[in-house]
């Protein structure tokens, strides 16, 4: 395994309003890794983005000593493997079965849970009832997995917590803009409590984009 | 890390014609792990499938000493981590960057490359031209990644090779049924050569379902 050193170059190509891109900022901050951040204009992608992620041309991209990696979940595991000295805030547990469960929930978040909530927040009137029903089902599935734990990772923030960044912070903004009640204390008390623990964690709090700016950004998108 | 022992129970819930399900058979055979296989009727799912994969209710599922894991790529990494004695046919390399690249390609296969080829093979006349173009682009991306290696894993079959199971074997059957020329020796000489190396690898050859049965199965599906 590689280990961290003082003279390495760590660079993130990201988009400030993206919860996927923000996952990488949060992970590096949790590990205490300094990095340079380049904000991408997705309407006019940089030559670096096209060079470092030629297959998908999407953010986030991590460039570490010239080696580029795309896809946020792949980047998160890389960060966990590279900056793992003294079990430095490990994102994944050691046991293979618990590692597999964490990977399963990350994948399920990206493939099923986040799209369901996103669709509900942007649905038109006609499709809204069904989309909301699916979003609520998805949140129930996630809350059932959380059980009575403080974080999905147990006592500390793990891979699934970072992957659930969208649920922890973005959902409250998007549901307000859409006029929906999805993740509320009444409907999902445990998951709501998790979201509060999550956004108030000192490193996470520091690494999230300002709520008012996100609100304005998505409000403007909603009008289009 | 857990290690293998003689009195453990390994069970796979699968569907013989699914390239995703077959990934798990191949991985266990490559590792030399004996297992019990249960064929699922997806039109009438077993109580075990609903119990072991309540979120997605899909094959494949691995049940190891009572612990269940779903999602084929997650299962493959689990198998690689559990049965890793003496670096026993490791699916992933040791270096974090090369591990990240392998994970990136597995994800890109499932999210982009396989759907593009599947869509082309099942496209109607109207959408066919565009779908075929996208499938050919996807195959080009994959061939560019293979470069001049024997396998995606280098000299031995790795995680990406197993994830590309559909490309190695299923595509030749589906394109014949659809009357398309996608993965041919003329269009993609290196990738075609890889597919031949892959299906002729002694363990893979032994673990693939019979071609004539797959052909009949998908031919019947195409008529519906």
From TrEMBL, chains A, B:
GO terms for molecular function: glutathione transferase activity. Residues 95-224 form the GST C-terminal domain. The keyword Transferase applies. Its EC number is 2.5.1.18. Pfam families: GST_C, GST_N. Keywords: Transferase. This is glutathione transferase. Residues 8-87 form the GST N-terminal domain. It catalyses: RX + glutathione = an S-substituted glutathione + a halide anion + H(+). PANTHER family: GLUTATHIONE S-TRANSFERASE U8 (PTHR11260:SF676), GLUTATHIONE S-TRANSFERASE, GST, SUPERFAMILY, GST DOMAIN CONTAINING (PTHR11260). InterPro entries: Glutathione-S-Trfase_C-like, Glutathione-S-Trfase_C_sf, Glutathione_S-Trfase, Glutathione_S-Trfase_N, GST_C, GST_C_Tau, Omega/Tau-like, Thioredoxin-like_sf. One of its GO terms (biological process) is glutathione metabolic process. The keyword Transferase applies. Belongs to the GST superfamily. One of its GO terms (cellular component) is cytoplasm. It is an enzyme of class 2 (transferase).
